[in-house]
Amino acid sequence: MPITWRHEVDAALEEARRTRMPVLLDFTAAPM
Amino acid sequence: MWPDPDIDTFVADHFIPVRLHVKAQAEAYAAASERFGASWTPTTLLIDAGGTERHRIEGFLPKSDFLSQLELGMAHIAFHEKRFGEAEKGFEEVVSRFPDSDAAPEAQYWAGVSRYKASGDPKALGAVRSAFQKKYSDTVWAKKASVWSPS
């Protein structure tokens, strides 16, 4: 299952608060 | 590490995934790296539903080691949310599924702590100390468990 990455941290944290699902925040410099 | 179908599935099933690329999301990357103290790539943070970072993975890891760290972090999140039974099960799964990983001795330690937190029975800690005498005896987690009375 491919990941649908988000790019807005605060929106993800707000969703986490509402859904009780944790956030995985990945910082990367990998070639695109 | 990524892309990998097993890791992708695990992440999609258990987390709200956010990725910030140093170039593609340069502004957001700079702000978030300052905010969370992420000074190197790759860095992966596991953040609980309350917004608190509970686990950090810095640097590349092969697939099985990375998965073990994700599962370890999930168990840490359960522990901090006082879901001790779930935490214990998660930590024990790390030990059983990834026995040769760096995550395993840490998971063995916290499985015992979770059992103690759930039961209040100090024998749970003694049992962990005894377990460390059999496996992972040369790790820092064995040193940490050494203060507990043997069961």
Give an account of the 3D structure:
The complex is a heterodimer of chains A (32) and B (151). Chain A has 32 residues and is an alpha+beta fold. Chain A contains one helix and one strand; from the N terminus they run αβ. Chain A has one helix at 9-19, and one strand at 23-28. Chain A is elongated, with a radius of gyration of 11 Å. With 151 residues, chain B is mainly α. Chain B has one domain (5-145): Tetratricopeptide repeat domain (Serine Threonine Protein Phosphatase 5, Tetratricopeptide repeat). In chain B, strands 2-3 form a two-stranded antiparallel ribbon. The model of chain B has no long low-confidence stretch (mean pLDDT 96). At the A-B interface, α1 and β1 of A face α1, β1, α2, β2 and α3 of B.
Give a short synopsis of this structure.
Chain A has one helix at 9-19; one strand at 23-28.
Distance between the termini of chain B: 40 Å
The figure for the number of domains of chain B is 1
Major sheet summary line of chain B: 2 strands, antiparallel
| CATH topology assignment of chain B | Serine Threonine Protein Phosphatase 5, Tetratricopeptide repeat
Helix/strand-derived category of chain B reads: mainly alpha
The percent of residues in helical segments of chain A reads: 25-40%
List the helices and strands and how they pair.
The complex is a heterodimer of chains A (32) and B (151).
Chain A: H1 9-19, E1 23-28
Chain B: H1 5-14, E1 16-21, H2 26-36, E2 43-47, E3 53-58, H3 63-80, H4 84-97, H5 103-119, H6 123-134, H7 140-145
Helix pairs in contact in B: 1-3, 3-4, 3-5, 4-5, 5-6
Q: Key terms for this structure?
A:
heterodimer, A: 32 residues, alpha+beta, elongated, B: 151 residues, mainly alpha, two-stranded antiparallel ribbon
